[in-house]
């Protein structure tokens, strides 16, 4: 693995850790200021502020106490400053070992030397 590959994987670990800590600020800081998120239910978020607000509402309500899951299946570096990641993604309810399973596509790039998520989308898995 290259240092860029490790840095990209570290961002995904950061989203899992922030989710498991139910910390919307730490979660949103991993996203670029103009990032987008598209979820399987049709939710579309534009920008870090919307992402933070959505996660704060979730962690205060139906996502309270849940833990994040993201297991990279593929990390493709697109030059030195961009990457596409495919992962198994979801979350677990407190006390559960299972949770919704989705496949996610992440687009990440370097912003002033720091890797951030530019776009995220997920869908249910069929295989």
Strand content: 35-45%
Largest sheet: 6 strands, mixed
- Annotated CATH architecture: Roll
Contiguous uncertain segments of 5+ residues? none
Q: What's the assembly state of these chains?
A: single chain
Structural class: alpha+beta
The succession of helices and strands, N to C, reads: HHEEHEEEE
The whole-angstrom Rg is: 14 Å
User: Going across the major beta sheet, what is the strand order?
Assistant: 2-1-6-5-4-3
CATH C-level category = Alpha Beta
What's the rounded overall pLDDT mean? 94
How many separate domains?
A: 1
Report the span from N to C terminus. Answer: 26 Å
CATH fold-level name: Nuclear Transport Factor 2, Chain: A
How much helical structure, as a percent, in the residues? 25-40%
Number of strands: 6
Mass-distribution shape: globular
Salient structural properties:
127 residues, alpha+beta, six-stranded mixed sheet
Describe the structure.
It is a single chain. β5 (102-111) and β6 form a beta hairpin. The chain has a 6-stranded mixed beta sheet with strand order 2-1-6-5-4-3. The protein has helices spanning 3-20, 24-29, 48-60, and strands at residues 31-38, 44-46, 67-77, 82-92, 102-111, 114-124. The mean pLDDT is 94. The chain has 3 helices and 6 strands; from the N terminus they run ααββαββββ. It has one domain (3-124): Roll (Nuclear Transport Factor 2, Chain: A). The chain is 29% helix and 43% strand. The radius of gyration is 14 Å and the shape is globular. By secondary structure, the chain is an alpha+beta fold.
